[in-house]
Amino acid sequence: MFKRRFPVKCSILLKTGDRVKNRALSLRSIGYLEFAVAGRSDSSIVDLRLVDAEANVQPFHADVDGERVDIEGFTITARDFDLSASEGEVDQATEEGWFRLAFTLRTELAPRLRELLGIDSIQMEIVERGTISVSREMIIETHAETFELPESVPRSLVEGIGRFREVDNSKGPPCKVSSVRLGAVISEEFSRHDEKELSRTQMDLIVCPGTKVTLVYAITDVSAVNSAVIKDIKNGADIPVSSLDPSGTGTIDITPTDDAEYVLSISDPSCAPDSAPGIKIWVVKPGKEIDIAAGWNGQAGVATWDGSPKFIGKDVYATSIRSVDCGIEQRPPIPDWGFMFTDMDGRVSFGEVGPSYAPLPRGDLPLHGSRWTFEPKSYVRDILRACFSIRCACR
Smallest Cα–Cα separation from 51: which of 91, 95, 2, 89? Predict the structure, then answer.
């Protein structure tokens, strides 16, 4: 058995009642779900059991009885979850799976919400199904099955949440856009048959100035979309999606010269605006430092990181490396490691990593298509990943 921590960005759509003028409210949160993962003999299916979780719900507001009510942000932690009832399974061969989350929303976490609803807590159980990568620690795309709020929640304020058994179309069409996704790839490595897969792959890119990059987007039921725009939230620039393909997928080519973070934002008249998780592009300048996280394999006792050619430019090289603290995902900190570097042609180099930058044993090493295997110098019992910082240069 081993543990995997999945970063989670969640959007929950509330269907409101008459006092809130039946307007949809979108609640957003960011956090993580940590599962203990157990394999089955002679099967690609693994079982998940929740061991830790955190969801930081962002502040939101609603117009109640004609007056604006601001609800403060709050955090749900592992103590709010029923860990024995929160479980799931994933077929690692297909990455298809499901998980159940049972938790209690304590309204004391947001006093204004407690005052508004007039109740102390809400018992909830959600089942999510979709695409989950255990090896990459990514919940790629999941959707909640039908579920309802408890009867204790005043229906004049909130009628339902997530997907509904019944939808009242008399007040306008239901929300059609269930998800938006954005991916990116080195243009030279892009092929059309990869389009849908790339839009599901949330990987940062590392490139040199002048490298052509292809942004790949996917929107479910594109006919419901009023407009779409790819925003560079780091630099404040927008790239309008001028014509949406009926399939809901498409590409836009860019040539970044500075670090950027792109999100795909859409407007659907029947719903609150939605957006996809961001894609970061790191543009290498002299002395650029890039942090990497190598996934831990407890059985082999090593951590590995792959420099995929789809996401790292051919002219990006590592000049030196050091170990860095992974935070709570690596306790106690492990400063000293040995490593094996394998380049795209199978050539192997060996070296050591400590907490200070040191030159690499064979000179600068190409990150494009490389694999790094790290072995700790001291005994390691149970960590999630190993973290390092690489100084990069363009060659």
Answer: 2
- Listed in sequence order, the residues at least 6 apart from 94 whose beta carbon sits closer than 8 Å to its beta carbon are 44
Q: What are the two backbone dihedrals, phi and then psi, of residue 198, each rounded to the nearest 5 degrees? A: -65, -35
d(CA 16, CA 247): 31
- C-beta atoms surrounding 18 within 10 Å: 11
Task: Tell me the per-residue pLDDT of 71-89, one tens digit each, with 9 for 90 and over.
Answer: 888 888 999 999 988 999 9
Omega before residue 273 within 30° of 0, cis: no
Contacts of 170 (CB under 8 A, 6+ apart): none
The per-type count for the chain, helices as H runs and strands as E runs, is 2, 29
Task: Read off the amino acid at residue 46.
Answer: V
Position 359, amino acid: P
Under DSSP, the state recorded for 203 is -
pLDDT digits (tens, 9 = 90+) for 368-380: 999 999 999 987 7
Question: Among 167-171, 303-307, 353-357, which is the least confidently predicted range?
Answer: 167-171
| Beta-bridge mates of residue 52 | 34
Check residue 218 and give its pLDDT. 74
Question: Could you tell me if 294 and 326 are in contact, meaning their C-beta atoms sit under 8 angstroms apart?
Answer: no
Termini Cα distance of the chain? 43
Distance CA 87, CA 102 (A): 9
Per the CB < 8 A criterion, the answer to whether 296 and 337 are in contact is no
Residue with token string 């003999």: 41
Residue whose pair of structure tokens reads 């620039």 in the numeric block: 237
**What 8-state DSSP symbol labels residue 146?**
S
pTM of the predicted protein model: 0.56
Smallest Cα–Cα separation from 292: which of 366, 204, 381, 189?
204
CB–CB of 290/280 below 8 Å? Answer: no
Q: What DSSP string describes 215-263?
A: EEEEESSGGG-SEEEEEETTTTEEEE--S--TTSEEEEEE--SS-EEEE
Which residues make Cβ contacts (< 8 Å) with residue 5, sequence separation at least 6?
Answer: 32, 33, 34, 52, 137, 329, 384
Instruction: Retrieve residue 279's tokens.
Output: 């894609």
CA separation for the pair 87, 35 (Å, rounded): 8
Dist CA 276 CA 216 (whole Å): 12
